[in-house]
Amino acid sequence: MVRGAVARSFAPLLLVLAMLAAARAPAAEWEGALRGSARLLLDTNAPRDYSDRDTPGAERDFALSLLGAAEGRGSFERAQLVGRYELGARKYVLYQEEDTLVQSGAVEASHALGTSLGIGLEGHAKDRRGGSRSYSDLGTTAFLEYAPDVRLALRVRAGARRFVYRPDPTANFGGPEVGVLGRYRFDRRHSLSVFGDWNARRFGTAPRARPPGAGGSSGLLPGRRQDGALTAGASYTYRGPVALGLTYAFQELSSNSYGETLRRHRVSANAGVRLPWRVTLLAQGSLGLTQYPDGIYLSPEIILVEEDEGQNSLSAKLARPLTDTLDLEASWGIWSTRLPRNALTYTRQVFSVGFTWRY
């Protein structure tokens, strides 16, 4: 079923690619890049469990992480093709049930209608196998882009999305989605972006809407569950001696199933700076406030779709080039959240050291 959904998701885009390839534009220019990394990890909460303790104990485990990525771009006289693909694997020593294999890819084809207007198609897919969160996330969109100059860019898109969660088929959904993204560059250092997305999620025939007062799987309403997911926000970026970014996002998931509605406010920031001895420091953090008007039932897709592993996070990475194509890296990150009604806490720290190769 997932394989067929992937094929349907990319079918319109593959048609466009075939048409562009058949044109054999003589002025084509191609460029690409490859990247690979290998890291040794120490994970303080390998099973990603909630606990009534502030610090995990026996959940620690070592893991080996491998990641490969490729991206390419083809520029024609009035058209452009962009593609990227990533493949990652993680192997644990003790918690082997948490071993994961993740693939993600996206392809975009665009065509200029004039000096400032363009249209295109984009398809993306992500597939995660292993662990407690095995899913596929697929989507195809058509977009219209307006860019009168280098300062302003506006993209409006519409398409469809399909989400398949293998451990619990009642969490599978699909439906149309629309979005808008705007960016304005004040100068070469300062820029401001705004974004918004809406997705109508229609679930299968098996999941029924939960009535008020139902805390379990019994007594479900006969109607099919339907959700509406809204995301809106803005971000500011500074590029100078220090690279800075600040983003605010609001998410509202409205559902006809009792206990599945949530509202989330999230502020995130990132920074990058060059240190002595050719060392680069990258840091990012986020703070979130989530409200559950009907209570907390921990529906799978509440955490899965965003995959942010909690409301609050902080991470840092140090990188130093050993050669022109090889970097030595060390990183640390912490993710945490707390459920207010039952005092359960989710905390996870990951320490890593490894190498990244670029071509």
TrEMBL record:
Protein name: Uncharacterized protein
Organism of this sequence: Corallococcus macrosporus DSM 14697
Region of interest (Disordered), ranges: 205-224
Endpoints of the signal sequence: 1-27
Sorted UniProt keywords: Signal
